[in-house]
Design a protein that fits this description.
The complex is a heterodimer of chains A (113) and B (114). By secondary structure, chain A is an all-beta fold. Chain A contains no helices and 11 strands. In chain A, 0% of the residues lie in helices and 50% in strands. In chain A, the strands form 2 sheets. In chain A, strands 2, 4, 5, 6, 9, 10 and 11 form a 7-stranded mixed sheet that branches. In chain A, strands 1-3-8-7 form a 4-stranded antiparallel sheet, with no helix packed on it. Chain B has no helices and 11 strands. In chain B, β6 and β7 (62-66) form a beta hairpin. Chain B starts with a strand and ends with a strand. Classes of the chains: A mainly beta (113), B mainly beta (114).
Chain lengths: 113, 114
Amino acid sequence: EAQVTQNPRYLITVTGKKLTVTCSQNMNHEYMSWYRQDPGLGLRQIYYSMNVEVTDKGDVPEGYKVSRKEKRNFPLILESPSPNQTSLYFCASSFRGGVETQYFGPGTRLLVL
Amino acid sequence: EDQVTQSPEALRLQEGESSSLNCSYTVSGLRGLFWYRQDPGKGPEFLFTLYSAGEEKEKERLKATLTKKESFLHITAPKPEDSATYLCAVQASGGGTSYGKLTFGQGTILTVHP
């Protein structure tokens, strides 16, 4: 089944403790992206990747890191999480980016205490 | 800076009561405008892509239209299963890798009562 998977789905952590949220797609997509969703603010793009080893900042990259070493994986790294990074995170992928359909993962709900 | 504003924030309809959702956008050259549906606790699901003013697309009870400043999602004779959050997003026409950037509106929460 074609899908985007994220792990973990739920995470509670404390301020300053480094964490990684994994994202994997099995559709051989070149483009992958991370978003955060907050009430009243909608989806905001954190980082995106047009292909392996190519990443670019979205609208809210501060406090996040990404890497794209393999085509199928695009992990989101929070080196020193803070409470304002408490949010619902979505990973998405598409064949080449641009105006092509993006397929979203199920989401990761993060609480930073 | 690209901006997308959706209205209303929330819309409550009776089953069968047709209505429209609005998505106003400001972008320096539009590459594409997207509509997504999001059910509670799930990731957004793609509905439509519109590329140029005057374009229309339909899917079951939904019809999306596009002008140079806004897009409408028309819902005809809605059913309770149409209840969801509807998201609009734009992609600007830019050079290099900038066309990977996507800007979303805050969404419209639609509730259809039986």
